[in-house]
Design a protein that fits this description.
Layout (H helix, E strand, L loop, with lengths): L3 E6 L3 E6 L2 H7 L3 E7 L4 H11 L4 E4 L7
Parallel strand pairs: 1-4
Antiparallel strand pairs: 1-2, 2-3
Length: 67
């Protein structure tokens, strides 16, 4: 089953939360900032992150933080 990347807006930038346990093991966190400010449209962030992670399922979080 492919790992998931869930995109959400943080205080200053878009954030990516990974379900792959190797990310948390290697970096000590499952959530990392993306190179997109909050001014970037969600669909653009989704498209670019999908291009960079073709084997993962990438989605946008809802306003409450869940998918």
């Amino acid at each position: 089953m492919p790992h998931e990347i869930i995109l959400s807006q943080g205080p200053d930038s878009w954030l990516a939360t990974f379900t792959d346990p190797a990310i948390k093991e290697a970096l000590g966190t499952d959530t990392l900032p993306c190179a997109f400010t909050n001014q970037a449209p969600g669909e653009r962030v989704l498209c670019e992150i999908q291009k960079l992670n073709p084997t993962a399922t990438v989605s946008l979080a809802t306003a409450g933080g869940a998918r």
